[in-house]
């Protein structure tokens, strides 16, 4: 996988764009760093990772609830957190739902369905960046998914083009 300096703000903006278009009534409280914060990664794969997390946050919460995405610089690295106040994941299912084609029992009746592949793919993408995803959830209350991405040296002018 090719890795290059990626401006995190751009990736996050691109990941959320289709959701803003599809669900203009949903509120996206975003905390974004200023332009110029770079991590080392694969821009398209990272965009896919954040799309899966946003997709879940929207799908497993309720129409008038806010979905949040925070991007925080952290000792040179960057921490991204996607959180919702939705149906949550039962404690006993937290590990399992990160495997391929696994879904939690409490999704039944809540949504129109899913393959159970998004979190698995997200974890694999994070792992290819030398990281993982970290799930915290309370059933009936909500979920937060965090990923920390490695820092990048300032890109050269050529890479900015
Ligand atoms: N934000 C969330 N809130 C509640 N449950 C979630 C959330 N994200 C993931 N899950 C649980 O983890 C399972 C796996 O997620 P995912 O791999 O994206 O598959 P899918 O969304 O297609 O079911 C989901 O089916 C659901 O049970
Ligand atoms: Mg999903």
Describe the structure.
This protein is 29% helix and 26% strand. The strands form 2 sheets. The chain has a 5-stranded mixed sheet. Strand 6 and strand 7 form a beta hairpin. The structure holds adenosine-5'-diphosphate (ADP) and magnesium ion. The site of magnesium ion (MG) has 5 residues, from helix 2.
**Number of helical stretches of at least 4 residues:** 4
The biggest sheet, with number of strands, parallel, antiparallel or mixed sense and barrel status, is: 5 strands, mixed
Report the CATH topology name: Heat Shock Protein 90
- Mean pLDDT comes to 89
What is the overall silhouette?
A: globular
Number of domains: 1
**Order of SSEs:** EHEEHEEHEEH
| Ligand names | adenosine-5'-diphosphate, magnesium ion
CATH superfamily: Histidine kinase-like ATPase, C-terminal domain
Please summarize what this structure is.
With 161 residues, the protein is of the alpha+beta class. It is built from four helices and seven strands.
Features:
161 residues, alpha+beta, Heat Shock Protein 90, globular, binds adenosine-5'-diphosphate, binds magnesium ion
Task: Spell out the blueprint of helices and strands.
Elements (H helix, E strand, L loop, with lengths): L3 E4 H15 L5 E4 L6 E4 L1 H17 L7 E8 L2 E8 L33 H11 L4 E6 L3 E8 L7 H4 L1
Parallel strand pairs: 2-4
Antiparallel strand pairs: 1-3, 4-5, 5-7, 6-7
This protein binds adenosine-5'-diphosphate and magnesium ion.
């Amino acid at each position: 996988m090719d890795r290059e300096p990626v401006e995190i703000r751009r990736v996050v903006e691109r990941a959320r764009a289709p959701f803003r278009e599809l669900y203009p009534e949903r509120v996206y409280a975003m905390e974004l760093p200023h332009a110029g914060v770079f991590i080392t990664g694969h821009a398209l794969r990272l965009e896919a990772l954040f799309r899966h997390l946003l997709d879940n946050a929207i799908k497993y919460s309720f129409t008038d609830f806010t979905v949040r995405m925070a991007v925080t610089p952290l000792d040179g690295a960057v921490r991204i957190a996607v959180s919702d106040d939705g149906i949550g994941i039962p404690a006993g299912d937290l590990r399992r739902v990160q495997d391929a084609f696994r879904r939690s029992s409490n999704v039944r009746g809540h949504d129109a369905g899913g393959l159970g592949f998004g979190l698995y793919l997200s974890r694999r993408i994070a792992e290819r960046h030398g990281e993982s995803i970290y799930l915290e959830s309370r059933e009936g209350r909500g979920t937060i998914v965090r990923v920390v991405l490695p820092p990048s040296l300032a890109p050269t002018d050529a890479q900015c083009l």
